[in-house]
Amino acid sequence: MDIAITLVVQGIAFFLVVWLVMHFGWPAFMQALEARQRKIAEGLAAANKGQKDLDDAKVTAQEIIRAAREKAAQIVEQANKRANEIVEDAKQAGAVEGRRLVAHAQEEIALETSRARETLRRQVADLAVRGASRLLEREIDPKTHAELLGKLELEIANG
Question: Using CA atoms, how far apart are residues 55 and 25, in angstroms rounded to an integer?
Answer without folding.
Answer: 45
